[in-house]
Automatic annotation (TrEMBL):
This is Phospholipid/glycerol acyltransferase domain-containing protein. The lineage of its organism: unclassified sequences, metagenomes, ecological metagenomes. Coiled coil: none annotated. The chain crosses the membrane at residues 12-34. Keywords: Membrane, Transmembrane, Transmembrane helix. It holds the Pfam family Acyltransferase. InterPro entries: Plipid/glycerol_acylTrfase. Residues 88-230 form the Phospholipid/glycerol acyltransferase domain. SUPFAM superfamilies: Glycerol-3-phosphate (1)-acyltransferase. The keyword Glycoprotein does not apply. One of its GO terms (molecular function) is acyltransferase activity.
Length: 309
């Protein structure tokens, strides 16, 4: 709608709208979070439901300014299989900071709100950190192998934290989200890992194994999402300034094998090997899918490679 404006003005306007949207919705969340502290179970449940509505309103308003400042072509498949009242484990490839906003735009109100497992330090992010806390996003503290060798009594606390967080998910439909790669794809990271995949980093299976252990039979479906940006991986400024012109997203619902539910990933070596093989199989399929998308919608990098002598 405002594509005739210079990109800088569009980006500035979008930034102001995002900030205003965040401040207004965060204010409502903080009030509801204080009410939720009262030891009245019915009130706590009501506050949780209203807070989810506020978060979904925030996402809806973000979709509004995205449409206002640019003309993005969204090619999305697989939404018809989703249920707003279901429980899901969700994963996706990770290429850009735009991924999360794109996922929220596409999935908002079509399935339960995505809940991310976050590093404990992120609770201190201004405004947003408190919003994540108010919305019951689980914060986790990960320990290095060196730290655990020095303090072995801390072993297993990750799983205990996951179990505690997932207890809050058992009364309200939820979509527990995890980027299996753990970080955004870059050529430097890809080379450093010596990743066997062409378009992906190596997957980390421990996080979702802990979730399946903690939530048992509640999570029966995996929503496997593949994102491709035909014009190359966008920056967040590209999104704000209306330069995000094309997004291809494919959603596929897959069953979670019953034998993977409620198992001890940390201490059962045989199960851990079997689970990692399943995750690697998912990643091989996703890498092949991305290869097809790159052939159908070549990025500037793809075209540059094909033009080399």
């Amino acid at each position: 709608m405002l594509s005739f404006l210079p990109a800088f003005l569009r980006g500035t306007l979008a930034t102001l709208l995002l900030a205003l949207n965040t401040i207004c919705c965060a204010s409502l969340l903080f009030v509801l979070a204080l009410m939720k502290l009262l030891p009245i179970r019915s009130l706590q449940k009501l506050c949780t439901l209203i807070m989810i509505e506020v978060a979904e309103l925030w996402m809806y308003c973000n979709s509004g300014w995205i449409a206002l400042v640019g003309k993005t072509k969204w090619e999305v498949e697989g939404l018809e299989q989703l249920d707003y009242k279901g429980w899901y484990l969700v994963t996706s490839n990770h290429q850009s900071w735009v991924d999360i906003v794109a996922l929220q735009h596409v999935l908002n109100r079509r399935m339960p709100m995505l809940k991310f497992f976050l590093k404990q330090e992120l609770i201190w992010v201004p405004v947003i950190g408190l919003c994540w806390w108010a919305l019951d996003f689980p914060f986790m503290k990960r320990y290095s192998k060196a730290f655990l060798a020095k303090y072995p009594e801390k072993a297993g606390q990750d799983l205990a934290t996951t179990r505690k967080a997932c207890e809050k998910f058992k009364t309200t439909p939820v979509a527990v989200f995890n980027f299996l790669e753990g970080t955004r794809l870059t050529q430097a990271k890809h080379a450093q890992q010596k990743s066997p995949f062409n378009y992906l980093l190596k997957p980390k299976s421990g996080g979702i194994a802990f979730v399946l252990d903690a939530m048992g039979t509640q999570l029966r479906s995996l929503l496997d999402i593949t994102i491709h940006y035909p014009n190359g991986n966008p920056t967040f400024w590209d999104l704000l300034s209306g330069k995000l012109t094309h997004v291809v997203m494919h959603c596929e619902l897959k069953p979670i094998p019953a034998e993977f539910l409620g198992k001890d990933y940390q201490n059962d070596a045989a199960f851990r090997s079997e689970f990692q093989a399943w995750v690697n199989g998912l990643w091989l399929e996703k890498d092949a899918h991305l290869a097809r998308l790159h052939a159908q919608y070549p990025t500037p990098t793809d075209r540059a490679k094909s033009n080399k002598p």
